[in-house]
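All the exercises in this workshop are built on plain-text protein records. A record pairs a protein's sequence with a compact description of its fold. The structure tokens are whole numbers drawn from a learned vocabulary of backbone shapes. Once this layout is familiar, the rest of the handout is easier to follow. An example says more than a description, so a record of this kind follows.
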Amino acid sequence: MVHKTQPEFTIGKGIVIREGTEICLLSAGTVLTVALGAADLLEKQGRSTRVVSFHTIKPLDTALLADTFKHFRVVGNHRGTQRPRWPRRSVAEWLTDQPNHSARLVKFGTRDEFLHLTCEQKKPAKHFGLTPEAIAAGIQRQLA
């Protein structure tokens, strides 16, 4: 559970879960809690981190993305273990058409490979670096 109260849900509009000023993590679905954990770790390291739930990808919230890439140094975008191209690909494709942005897009998540395991979600998440620790470390590397 990531919401303290029932959020206002609008198709095509992201929901800011946590405010921040330096880093923005875009996430969706079950990885949203992982993004919040990474934000907690980054905050402990003195990095102000916003977390946005992209609960719908089509239509894409281009106004929120434009604002994000204008005001943040690094934007982390995940690729989940169950929907390999969603939402990371949508954001990356949108970004290629934007002439002016100052943030660096950092991808996290599954590589283009078949996972030869039958297991619960935590094991593939660790394998592909979809843990709070791995995401926070990747963001810190980009900021260095």
